[in-house]
Structure formats: C-alpha cells, structure tokens
Amino acid sequence: MTLLxxxxxRVAFGEKEVVHGIDFSxxxxxxxxxxxxxxxxxTVTALSLLRLVQNAEIGGVADFAGQSGGNVGRAEATRDLxxxxxxxxxxxxxxxIAMIFQxxxxxxxxxxxxxxxxxxxxxxxxxxxxxxxxxxAVQLLADTGIPDPARRARALPHQLxxxxxxxxxxxxxxxxxxxxxxxxxxxxxxDVTVRAQILELLTDLQRRYGMAVLLITHDLNLVRRFxxxxxxxxxxxxxxxxxxxxxxDSPQHPYTRRLIDSRPTRDVMPLDSTRSEESLLAANALRxxxxxxxxxxxxxFRKGAFxxxxxxxFRIASGETxxxxxxxxxxxxxxxxxxxxxxxxxxxxxxxxxPWGEGGAADRALRRVMQVVFQDPFSSLSPRMxxxxxxxxxxxxxxxxxxxxARRVRALAALADxxxxxxxxxxxLDRYPHEFxxxxxxxLAIARALIVDPKLLVLDEPTxxxxxxxQKQVLGLLQRLQRERGLSYLLITHDVEVIRAMAHRVIVMKxxxxxxxxxxxxxxxxxxxxxxxxxxxxxxxx
Length: 542
Prior knowledge:
Blueprint: E1 2-13, E2 16-27, E3 31-35, H1 42-49, E4 57-64, E5 79-80, H2 86-92, E6 97-100, H3 104-107, H4 114-126, H5 130-143, H6 149-152, H7 162-173, E7 180-184, H8 192-209, E8 212-217, H9 220-226, E9 229-234, E10 237-243, H10 244-249, H11 254-260, E11 279-292, E12 304-317, E13 321-325, H12 332-339, E14 346-351, E15 354-355, H13 361-367, E16 370-373, H14 377-380, H15 387-398, H16 404-417, H17 438-450, E17 456-460, H18 468-485, E18 488-493, H19 496-502, E19 505-510, E20 513-519, H20 520-525, H21 530-541
Parallel strand pairs: 3-8, 3-9, 6-7, 7-8, 13-18, 13-19, 16-17, 17-18
Antiparallel strand pairs: 1-2, 1-4, 4-5, 9-10, 11-12, 11-14, 14-15, 19-20
C-alpha cells in the first residue's frame, strides 16, 4: 500500500524556486533515502511535507494514507498534507508523521529535561496523565538503549552525550508510533561507533513498529546499509531513483556517479628520511585536567580533578601528518588545544625544540609556527568581518610592519592558494562569510591560517561538517598544500577514512589515554588493541 504519494512538489522563497516539481512515493513499511549535497533541496522537501518551512510557497500534492492512532486496520481516507487546514495538520505532526532533526542539541529545548520533552508528546497526542506520560517516556528512552533511563529522563540535553541526545530525539519521534518517520541526517554529527549503534537502533525500531522511513542524508554508506530505495537530488530536481543496489552498482546520472566516487583518496608524499627524526612539535607525559566540584562537605574545602588527557607522548616531524582518532570524549580535542598552547598542562611540550605553552613573549614568537583550522567554518569565522579582515587578521599581529596594500596582496595570494580568486568572486575581499558555501568557508579558514606562513596546522575535524564531494576537495587541497609547502598536520578526527587518506602515523585515544600508536598502515590494517579493532570494524561496516 502506498503510504505517501508526492506529485509535483514545488517550494519557493519569493521568486526563487528551490524544489522544482519533484515526484516520489513511499510504501507502508518502506525505507526511502533522499540523497544529495547541502543545498540540493532534500531537507526543504522533508520539512515542506509537514509545512514546517517558514515564508515558503509550497505547491503540488502530498497524499498521505495514515492510520488513526497508529492502529493497523483503521485506515483513514487519503489526505493531501499540503492543503490540509493547519489545525488538522497539527494532529498529524508527531502522531502520524514524526521527524528526527539533524542536530539534537538545537532541536531539544535546553530548559526542559529530556523526559519531560518526550512525555509532552504523549500528553498532547495520546491524552495521558503527567505520571503515565513520564513512565511511558522512561520506557521509550529504555527502548532506545539509553543506560539508566529513569535518571537520564531527568537530565537536561547538555548533560547527555551526542549519541544519547540523538536517542532521546528518536524516543520523542516514536512516542506515538507514527506511520512515517522523517529522519534528517540522523547520524551526521556522531562518531563512527555511535553512528553504527543509531543505525542498528533505527533498523530495529522500524521493523518493530512497521514504520515507513524517509531518510535525508548525504552519507552514501548509510544509504547502502539502511534503505530499500534511493532518490538522488541535485539543485531541487530528482535526477535518479531506484532500488539501492541498482543505483549504487549502475549509476546512470553523472551527479550520482560523482557522489559515489567521492570517498577520500590517499595522495600523500612519503616522509623525507633525512628530516623524519626532527621534531617540529613534541609532547612528553602531557597531562591536562580540569577542576570539578566534590559533592558533600569535602567539596567545601577542595576541588576534585577531571583528567582529560593523561600521559600523552607524541611527536610530529616536518612534513608529517599525525592523525588522532577516537570517539567524542576521548580527549583528542583537548590534546589539540593543549598543543596549541591554549590549555594549561603538565609535562613537556616543545615547538622546534623550545618550551611551548608557558605564556609570555616566547610563546608569542612561536605562535605563527602553529595555526589552527576549526571544525565548523561558519561558527569560527566572524559574520561581522569581511574576507579581507578575516584572512589578514594574523598579519596585524605577526607582520605589523606591512601596510594596508601589502596586507591585501598577501591576503589575495593566500586566497588564491586555496582556490578562491576575484575572477570567481568579484570584490572577494569585501564579501562576508555568509556569501560562501560550506566548502568555500573552510577554504577561507585555511587561507587565514596559511597567511602567516606556519609550519604546522592543527586540523580539528576539518571536513566533518562538509558534504562528501566537498570533503574530498578540501582533503585534496590540504594534501596539495602539504606537498608544496612542506606543512605538518596534527589531524583530529573520528573518521577512520580521513585518517587513512591523510595521515603518516596515527594515535588512538580513549578516555584521555593513548591506547595504540604507529604508522597508519600498521594501526588500521592490523590493529592490536580491542578498542582500535572496534573503531576500524565500525568504519568498515559504515
């Protein structure tokens, strides 16, 4: 039975149409993946089905044959979601069609416990009392695999890990046993092992409840493992659709072939044996801890300590990439911040053989040796500064002798190095970050780091927020810059495929400790520690 039949769906913002008359359908209990890069229109398509897109003009037909209360056998007449009165549509949202949003930290209300937020759905749609709704919410959290669900139900969203927040979102979406689940990038921000767990959970719950699922994603491995059929979107059009095996094995459209061929590829120069023994950055017994309150009377007199990194030893040679891989909370980002001299630490940390991270003029002189590229370029670039101000900012500190004209020349050269020019973007230096795509913003962030001629870049998840094709372009850019400039990289990531494509050596972290270290071939092809084996196995399965 066809559960949802969408015909001629159009979405426009003013005069700009972003979804151009697309057609697709979902059968009861089927899993359909809508695949495409950012800006392809896939999320807008899903949101428009429930008319959740503000200031949008939506046209077409979306016939939905839901069932009253989720009870099989009590089918209602087909209804057009796009023409239903708002009051009637409110009864469909959350009850018959539910949605898992992409980023649970922003989708969940920060002021209410996750249990209260799940219970609210049951009170609203099922008419349960507060007590009954709370008990049902705890059971739903337990069904999604959250440990100690009664305690976690009382927690605020920020007190849960990323995987637990995503499970809470799933519990909320499934509270009323909907007939159709819209899952918008449900695993994008998660570690590879947590991603595998969430995928298994969704598969199990989909079978148990007999739901249909519309999966919105750019992760082709996720589609291959989860979906029955796939529809590929480009620029608001569905350019190819069919069974997953057919589309992946014999893609017909050039865009589909480009997506499938977008896995990271290794193009790394071998280390120069004459320089491989020189340490550009070295750490010995590095330890980073944070003060935490101690409960009870003892906490009146002293603080406890949370050890984020314990006894870390590593070194990075000139022209080398050291990858640091681990799940969220493993300590890898803390390690990066300590390496940048931004956190107090114990143990020895040296840059070019000189002590680092102790403050004062000595650190300032070394600061230009090491620069950083952050995970999310949109949040790391000031929206109030122009490209000229952003890229040239480092020169005002490290090359104050340069006048405005000289700084502009250096800024344009740095931008050209990362593939951005005034020929592509007229008045490039006067533009603002919001005028660029995600991949272009990451190129701006790299240009900002390069302009002071550093020897080492700390790359903190530099591609995790990017689409697969853009990820491949940025990794290719970083590989080229390393070859041309002899740069060293400290690469922080949870993506084993990125490590395999970029790194010469890798260290594996868990709970603040380095569990395994060695060449990338040895560690990833023949892992010795059980945790490393689990990471590699999860990456292969993904």
